[in-house]
Amino acid sequence: MNFDLEEELKRALRREDVSPKFTSRVMERIVRSNAAKSENSKDGKGWRQRLAEFLNPPRMKLAVAGIIACLLTFIALGVHRYREHQRAIAEIAEGEKAREQVILAMRIASTKLKIAQKKVVDSR
Questions:
Q1: Residue 68 shares a structural domain with residue 48
Q2: Do 91 and 105 belong together in one domain?
Q3: pLDDT 10s digit of each residue in the chain, 124 long?
Q4: Which residues of 70-90 are buried (b: 16+ CB within 10 A; e: fewer)?
Q5: Domain count, the chain
Q6: CA torsion through residues 76, 78, 84, 87, sign
Q7: Is residue 81 one of the residues assigned to a domain?
Q8: Whole-model pTM?
Q9: What range does the domain containing 34 cover?
Q10: In this structure, is residue 92 part of a structural domain?
């Protein structure tokens, strides 16, 4: 059994005449496709109206309401967390400022104590 690829390809790809019904079948499909498209556009419904009709069933309305409620809850939680974070940052900054003020006060007190100590030592 000898397999000749070139011969098989030539046989498979050889030119054949189209059947007389081919053109009529293609034209019939085109007509049916155009009719279906025009029937879809004849109802005059835009995508918004079709979406509204899709969302019309009560279950869908409840689902949409639930989704909106969840989104609003997540947004509220996010805003709350953001404000907490900003408050924490402000407290940290306030603490750092107080720390610097305490360090400055300690330096001033230390300087004053050194001056007083020097005067006590010198007066003896």
A1: no
A2: yes
A3: 567 888 888 888 888 888 878 888 888 888 888 777 766 655 566 777 777 777 777 767 788 889 999 999 999 999 999 999 999 999 999 999 999 999 999 999 999 999 999 999 988 7
A4: eeeeeeeeeeeeeeeeeeeee
A5: 2
A6: negative
A7: yes
A8: 0.42
A9: 20-54
A10: yes
43-68: pLDDT as tens digits: 566 777 777 777 777 767 788 889 99
Residue 76 lies in a domain: yes
For every residue of the chain, DSSP letters joined together read ----HHHHHHHHT---PPPHHHHHHHHHHHHHHHHHHHHHHHT---HHHHHHHHT-SHHHHHHHHHHHHHHHHHHHHHHHHHHHHHHHHHHHHHHHHHHHHHHHHHHHHHHHHHHHHHHHHHH-
113 shares its domain with 87: yes
- The angle subtended at Cα 57 by Cα 53 and Cα 59, nearest 5°, is 140
Could you tell me if 122 and 66 lie in one domain? yes
